[in-house]
Structure formats: structure tokens, C-alpha cells
Amino acid sequence: MLRCMKHCLSGAALLAAAWLVGCGGKVVLGNNTSGEAGSGGEGGGGGGQTTGGSGAGNALVLEGDVVELRFTSTPITCQNPSPNPTSCGYWELAILLPDASLLVPGQIETDAVGAQVSFLESGNPQSSDPNDCPGGGGGGELPGAIEIAAVTDDHVDLNLVGFNSYFFDAKPDGSYHPPRCK
User: Fold this and answer.
1) What confidence score (pLDDT) does residue 158 get?
2) Is 112 left (phi over 0), alpha (psi -120 to 50) or beta?
3) CA-CA distances (angstroms) from residue 7 to 51, 124, 133, 137?
4) Of 19, 54, 95, 104, which shows the fewest CB atoms inside 10 Å?
5) Comparing C-alpha atoms, which of 107, 45, 98, 99 is closest to residue 76?
6) Is 113 helix (H, G, I), strand (E, B) or coil?
7) Mean pLDDT by 10 residues, the chain (182 residues)
8) Is 54 helix (H, G, I), strand (E, B) or coil?
């Protein structure tokens, strides 16, 4: 299993839009990361909040040529899907489904369908410097399950299973009700 963590990075490095993961030669590019508990909005295109797991966060389903499921510790909306965290204690998980036809009720094993999973976490400060955040991330065709209970025109009801192991403190596994951003 591909996993790189436990190296200290500055907060700025964790927030870079393009980041390189040096595990097994895999490279993950994007503004997709992973992290810890946050609050979510309801309605109006706000991020759907989880009801399970200790890493309660926010979620969106971004649709285009591929479908991206984005989960994060900070508020996100369809209008502003890229969080801009300014402190430690942040996480983000992004799952890129290679085909929109996968967004139907049932279970998706991410590694079996070739989904790209990326994650990033910055921990709490390790000194009096608020930017001294330990953290790391990784990505690739990683195992995990997405259990989709319902898909409507406006939202998706889903449960994440098996993603907690990619994080130190964050626990993104749980139930989500994210809006669909088309």
C-alpha cells in the first residue's frame, strides 16, 4: 500500500496546489488533499457534512468528464470547492472516479475500478510556531470503499470505508450527504 507521511512540512508546503509524492514513484498533482474535523453547510450548494466517524468534515461531488468526490476538514461549496486553510490541523481526501457511470447506488472498491485517491493531512503544531505542522500525503490507486446509498439530482448519500488508515489523526470514514456540483 502506498503511503507517505510523518515528514515535517511547513503549512505553505502542505497547501501547494501541485504537490509531489515520492512514494513508489507516484506523482499526484492537484488541489486535492485530506484532513481533520470541520463543520459543513447544508443547502445552497454547501458541503454535505458527515454523520459518522470522528473526522466529521465537508464533502462535494464535482462532476465533469470524471467525477471527483472531495472530503475536507474545512467548509467547501460548489462555488468554492478548493479550501484555503490557514492553520495546522487540516485534512483533505479526493477520490477521482474514472467514469461518471460509477455514480450509482452500490459499492465501489476504489482500487478495483482504477479510481485515483489522494490525501493530505497537516497535524497540530509541534512547537510555539503555528506553522510547524507535521504532515504528509500520498496518492494512487489505493484501496477503500465507497458505499453509495442514493443518488438524486441534487446530492449523493454515501459512506466511506477504509480510508482512515491513510491518516494519522483524521478519520474521514463515515456517512456523507454531499451536494452534486455540475
Assistant:
1) 97
2) alpha
3) 31, 13, 9, 9
4) 104
5) 45
6) helix
7) 32 30 29 30 39 59 93 91 82 95 97 96 85 89 98 96 93 95 92
8) coil
- Residue whose C-alpha cell reads 507517505 in the numeric block: 4
Distance CA 146, CA 134 (A): 28
Helix/strand/coil percent split, the chain, to 5: 10, 35, 55
Give residue for cell 476538514. Answer: 73
Which amino acid would we find at residue 61?
Answer: V
Dihedrals φ, ψ of 55, to 5°?
A: -100, 40
State the Cα torsion 86-91-94-95 to the nearest 10°: 180
Sign (positive or negative) of CA dihedral 58, 16, 94, 100:
positive
DSSP state of 15: T
C-alpha cell at 140: 494512487
